[in-house]
Specification:
2 copies of one chain form a homodimer.
Chain A (H helix, E strand, L loop, with lengths): L3 H18 L6 H8 L3 H13 L4 E3 L5 E3 L2 H4 L4 H9 L2 H4 L17 H17 L2 H9 L8
Antiparallel strand pairs in A: 1-2
The structure holds a DNA duplex.
InterPro entries (chains A, B): Tscrpt_reg_Rrf2, WH-like_DNA-bd_sf, WH_DNA-bd_sf
GO molecular function, one term (chains A, B): DNA-binding transcription factor activity
Protein name (chains A, B): Rrf2 family transcriptional regulator
Chain lengths: 144, 144
DNA sequence: ATTATTTCGGATAAATTTATCCTATTTAGA
DNA sequence: TCTAAATAGGATAAATTTATCCGAAATAAT
């Protein structure tokens, strides 16, 4: 469904949020270890999230990644996905047609529209806070 | 959502079904032209569908691909997708965890379960006949 | 039989995604 | 000021997906 990059991006964001609640800035090294992702690749992904101002980075000793506490609840899963995978998940045709709309639909246009809309609603109604709290309470997990 | 291979496979199957209703066997060349796909790559995909007995092939002059008329209505979109992309779309974790189930869910497990179930229902309730008839009536299109 | 046509299947290449490496830059603290 | 720790970012490599090429095998028609 999502690219590997996007999966890492989501998990990393959750881990950063989790620690930001405690006022802890976390390093790339720690993040990669805790979400079980390749370090250098994760770095690229975090760079993208920083560029899109979804997370914050601090260079140098004692630096790392963080998210302002107040912002965590307002960051939607959709923003993270969009930052990394773009918005093709919303607009692209299920069968890869260059043009696919109501006037010129592909054979699965209507069916896909429904599914994609559900996906959109899901991504837009899930935020970082919910996900971070589930990890904190042990209701969900970031690895294995 | 689907791989390129899967997109081509679905479109090719529809085109073959469409022609099989008229008793016409169609060649790889014609298929690739009509669904606007790379010929040699499409050949590989059709081979997979033949192996899984979703479509039928006849070698040699006047050969080509076909689907027995009686079978068309019973071929589900899910079978085509499964033949080419496998069943990861059903089982895989949304965040790529190796283990992700009710006892050890990833942070988006429940949300994804819902979407994936909708997708599953959609793929299993859409069949080749419906799609072929929509193309025939001009209600949907295979290219552009 | 020969030929033309067509799928099959192995080898290979191109493109994209995923992953690694290395150097530059920034920053806190000694 | 120097050093250690950390992110930034460019270059490159590995893996996967997508795409092409070509000879082999099958088959219908001549």
């Amino acid at each position: 469904m999502f690219s590997k990059a996007c999966e890492y991006g989501i998990k990393a964001s959750i881990y950063i949020a989790l620690n930001s609640y405690d006022g802890n800035r976390v390093s790339l090294k720690e993040i990669a270890k805790e979400i079980d992702s390749p370090e250098a690749f994760t770095a690229k992904i975090l760079q993208a999230l920083v560029r899109d101002k979804i997370i914050n980075s601090v260079k140098g000793a004692y630096g790392g990644f963080e998210i302002p506490k107040e912002a965590i609840a307002s960051i939607k899963l959709s923003q993270i996905v969009n930052s990394i995978d773009g918005d093709s998940i919303y607009h692209g045709c299920g069968l890869g047609l260059n043009v696919c709309d109501e006037n010129h639909p592909c054979p699965v246009h209507d069916q896909f529209k429904t599914i994609r809309n559900e996906l959109k609603i899901m991504l837009e109604s899930t935020n970082l806070e919910q996900m971070a709290l589930d990890i904190k309470s042990g209701a969900s997990f970031l690895k294995i």
